[in-house]
Specification:
Length: about 500
């Protein structure tokens, strides 16, 4: 395939979505399918000069967009959601082809974008402030919310559409423009999402040009977004290492960062648990997306009395999963994204063995040359060792024993990350304790459900090394707006607050 050309399978999917795109000639960014090893496309990289121009255009778009009433802005997002309903299947296939996610999960991700559009459309009529009691007679005290400006977003490969929609759809109804730098591993999905949005904007007819724009390239573009003062809000999804760098750069210019970073998620299984239910929740959370979710279950904290039984069941269930082509609907587990991910997985398993662990599974599975399919691994550990406390982005499930529920909670909380957590129990006291201030220290704390598969209505994000950000759901729209406190004096007097006297004349 010549440089900057789209492969036939990708071109066919673009054709199904009625997208016209012809990359210019010249060297570009190669995109390789992790499922087949085939090159899908070569797309032009955004250079620094063009990236600067993109941000300038986004600033101009914001100045026009902020004047459009919020419910009207919501209608653009609604149109986009309708367009995605029409093209859900080809977009899901493109997503699966590019990031290696099995097709049912890819369809679920596109559905999540559609759901976020519905959420944001409803939100566009509920961006509310407050009327606050005032101590001064003849006065009114209010709190109002206003658009921030250009919203910047950096997303990871594993959710190449949904995470973008979490932020951008909400940012749009809040009156912001948006600039998106997707992972350089999944630019095609980003390109398709952006082109479809441009079509919705053209149909809408009231959106300024360049309302949503795309930057294609590597970490240098992320640094630009983090350091540019024209971007008051920046959302970044990825590793804790990346987030630490972004946070410092954004804070250095007094910007606002929304960080959704690593997760080393745990589930506690108690003696009272329904083990059939727990088994289903554990297996999907541990093996879904080949372990490449920030909410993937990585630590299983099991009571001594049921450990042997549950481990035997898990080996049987994990062993029944079929690893292979993500576009084949008979398969449960697709490939790791690339060789670096496979190398990191094998290094983690080697470290687990050195630290006293017994490894089951984890070997490379059959697949095309250049692809890295693996069997999910289950690792029985003597305790929460150094490797267990580190996140490895792969399907590795560490099993640790506990004897006392307080000990289980301490193990759950005893890692740097704090994204998602779960407990399987039929004991009301254990469930309530786990979700109390004395229980899980994570942003997500579930009972009798796994760590993966969050709904869009709840605020998504975590604490500690997960970054503390909340990307979408609940009242997270406030992160995309600025707050103003307003006092109105409708009297003929001018009393000061706190009884201060300052008479003149």
């Amino acid at each position: 395939m010549s440089a900057n050309r789209i492969s036939a399978p990708v071109a066919a999917l673009f054709e199904q979505m009625n997208l016209r795109y012809a990359p210019p000639a010249g060297a570009g960014l190669p995109t390789v399918s992790p499922g087949t090893g085939e090159e899908l496309a070569r797309l032009p990289l955004t250079d620094m000069a063009e990236a600067d121009a993109v941000i300038a255009r986004a600033q101009a778009a914001f100045l026009a967009w902020r004047a459009v009433p919020a419910p009207v802005r919501g209608q653009l997002v609604r149109l986009y959601g309708d367009l995605l309903r029409t093209y859900k299947e080809p977009l899901a296939r493109l997503l699966s082809m590019e990031c290696g996610k099995i097709l049912t999960e890819a369809r679920g991700e596109v559905q999540e974008v559609i759901d976020i559009c519905e959420f944001a459309t409803g939100l566009s009529r509920q961006l509310h402030g407050l009327s606050i009691a005032t101590e001064r007679p003849g006065h009114k005290l209010l709190e109002t919310w206003h658009p921030m400006g250009v919203f910047g977003q950096i997303t990871a490969f594993n959710f190449p559409a949904a995470v973008w929609a979490w932020g951008t759809m909400v940012a749009l109804v809040c009156g912001n423009s948006a600039v998106w730098k997707p992972s350089e591993k999944t630019p095609l999905t980003a390109l398709a999402c952006t082109l479809l949005f441009e079509r919705a904007a053209a149909e809408f007819g009231q959106a300024p040009d360049h309302l949503v724009q795309l930057l294609i390239g590597g970490a240098d573009l992320g640094v630009l977004l983090a350091e540019d003062a024209r971007i008051p809000v920046l959302s970044a999804t990825g590793s804790t290492r990346m987030g630490r760098d972004v946070a410092v750069r954004v804070a250095g210019r007094f910007g606002r960062a929304i960080l959704e970073l690593g997760g080393n998620n745990a589930a506690i299984v108690t003696p009272s648990a329904d083990l059939d239910l727990a088994l289903r929740g554990i297996v999907f959370s541990a093996a879904g997306t080949a372990g490449q979710r920030c909410t993937t279950l990585r630590r299983l904290i099991v009571h001594d009395s049921i450990r042997d039984d549950l481990v035997a069941r898990l080996k049987s269930a994990l062993g029944s999963l079929v690893t292979g082509d993500p576009l084949d609907e008979a398969n449960h587990v697709g490939p790791l994204i690339d060789e670096a991910a496979f190398t990191a997985m094998q290094a983690a398993l080697a470290a687990a063995r050195e630290q006293g662990g017994t490894v089951w599974g984890g070997e490379r599975a059959a697949g095309p040359d250049g692809c890295f399919y693996v069997r999910p691994a289950l690792v029985e550990m003597p305790g929460q060792t150094e490797i267990v406390r580190a996140e490895t982005f792969a399907p590795i499930l560490y099993v640790i024993s506990y004897s006392d529920f307080d000990q289980a909670i301490a193990l759950q909380n005893g890692v740097p990350q704090g994204l998602s957590s779960a407990v399987f129990t039929r004991d009301l006291r254990e469930a309530e304790l786990f979700q109390s201030a004395l229980g899980s220290d994570c942003g997500i704390a579930n009972v009798n459900i796994g760590t993966s598969g969050a709904e869009i209505g709840g605020a998504f994000g975590g604490e500690k090394a997960t970054g503390g950000g909340r990307a979408s759901g609940s009242d997270t729209w406030k992160a995309y707006m600025r707050r103003a406190t307003n006092t109105i004096n409708y009297s003929n007097d001018l009393p000061l607050a706190q009884g201060v006297k300052f008479d003149i004349g």
